[in-house]
Write a structure and sequence with these properties.
By secondary structure, the chain is an alpha/beta fold. The protein folds into 2 domains: about 190 residues, Isopropylmalate Dehydrogenase (3-Layer(aba) Sandwich); about 130 residues, Isopropylmalate Dehydrogenase, CATH 3.40.718. Helix content is about 40%, strand content about 20%. The protein contains 10 helices and 12 strands. The strands form 2 sheets. A 10-stranded mixed sheet has the order 2-1-3-12-11-4-5-10-8-9, with helices on both faces. It has a two-stranded antiparallel ribbon with strand order 6-7. Helix 1 links the parallel strand 1 and strand 2. Helix 4 packs across helix 5. It is globular, with a radius of gyration of 20 Å. The two termini are about 20 Å apart. The model has no long low-confidence stretch (mean pLDDT about 95). It binds 1,4-dihydronicotinamide adenine dinucleotide and magnesium ion. Magnesium ion binds next to helix 7. This is Isopropylmalate dehydrogenase-like domain-containing protein.
């Protein structure tokens, strides 16, 4: 209820993270969202309990609150610790990453009819963190695909399609070459598809999928795929509608955890310059509100964001405008 604030975890993250997290805080204030943020920062030292710069307390905060919003986290390379994002995904068992992507009214790109959702397996595949040197000059990386994780993400994709009135699920793969790994992934998708006769199921090889997405993205509805493919395809999809400044996502974890985040990274090239487009993180925060069933607030905020972009007076540089992050944010708040 309105009188009891809901506690949610906030990781402002690195690079442009704190700037766009500030936008979310301002917009939530303007819309009177009954959320109290529990802010956690990336630590300065490795926490032995997480083997990364993420503190145990910050993980506990998400486990306790079950909802949160995270900014991008850059990982310093080659220091003998786990990636922050991998740590979060593994420790919190964030098994599916849902990435909706739709043409924004009033913002013209080559297409005006993109409306698809990428569902990315989020815990294994090439991102299992199992890489080592075999001998000098030869390195090895293990791609792990399990029946359990594949069934779980496929189940989520079909469940999502049903719940959101979607008609088709496409499993994206390279099983012609990766016969064992992607073969198992497909087998699991097929098994789940049988339980959902209302949903059309198809299998598309990833290279062909890229070509079709660029040529006619309206062919796709819900796409489900292993980790690495999901990472790549979702940036491609962002490009179809205007770029990474626009596309949100939500990580779904076991036990009802939802940790929303933008698809993009910390954008070091524009960090600290008040230039970042906060739309991706704002729309991510909207998915968090929907998870909390705060649909009125979610609708109002989403409408204010989309209207501001459609009107075109205030747009950030990535969309061809001249507004700063703060000016764009203020324009949204004024609508609220
Ligand atoms: P990136 O997504 O940070 O940036 C790619 C390009 O898109 C850059 O030109 C950037 O300026 C632009 N861009 C991204 N977000 C934008 C926004 N909101 N508004 C306007 N322009 C935006 O990818 P990059 O440069 O490859 O990665 C930078 C760092 O972020 C790396 O350390 C990477 O590991 C990390 N990363 C973290 C992610 C996460 O926390 N989930 C996801 C992707 C990358
Ligand atoms: Mg990515």
């Amino acid at each position: 209820t309105e009188s009891n604030p809901i506690r949610a975890t906030l990781f402002p993250g690195d690079g442009i993270g704190p700037e766009i997290a500030e936008s979310v805080k301002q917009v939530f204030r303007a819309a009177d969202v009954p959320i109290e943020w529990e802010e956690h920062y990336v630590g300065k030292e490795i926490d032995p309990r997480t083997q990364s710069f993420l503190t145990w307390e910050s993980l506990e905060s998400v486990r306790r609150n079950k909802v949160g919003l995270k900014g991008p986290m850059a990982t310093p390379i080659g220091k003998g610790h786990r990636s922050l994002n991998l740590t979060l995904r593994k420790e919190l068992n964030l098994y599916a990453n849902v990435r909706p992507c739709y043409s924004l009214p009033g913002y013209k790109t080559r297409y005006d009819d993109v409306d698809l959702v990428t569902i990315r397996e989020n815990t294994e595949g090439e991102y299992s963190g199992l890489e080592h040197q075999v001998v000098r000059g030869v390195v090895e990386s293990l791609k792990i695909i399990t029946r359990q994780a594949s069934l779980r993400v496929a189940e989520y994709a079909f469940h999502y399609a049903m719940a959101h009135g979607r008609e088709r699920v496409s499993a994206i793969h390279k099983a012609n070459i990766m016969q064992k790994t992607d073969g198992l992934f497909l087998k699991c998708c097929r098994e789940v598809a049988e339980k959902y006769p209302e949903i059309t199921y198809e299998e598309v090889v990833i290279d062909n999928c890229c070509m079709m997405l660029v040529k006619n993205p309206a062919l796709f509805d819900v796409l489900v795929m292993p980790n690495l493919y999901g990472d790549i395809i979702s940036d491609l999809c962002a490009g179809l509608i205007g770029g990474l400044g626009l596309t949100p996502s939500c990580n779904i974890g076991e036990g009802g955890i939802a940790l929303a985040e933008a698809v993009h990274g910390s954008a070091p090239d524009i960090a600290g310059k008040n230039m970042a487009n906060p739309t991706a993180l704002l729309l991510s925060s909207v998915t968090m509100l929907r998870h909390l069933e705060l649909h009125d607030k979610a609708d109002r905020i989403q409408e204010a964001i989309l209207k501001t972009i459609a009107e075109g007076k205030y747009r950030t540089g990535d969309l061809g405008g001249t507004s700063t992050t703060t000016e764009f944010t203020k324009a949204i708040c004024d609508k609220l």
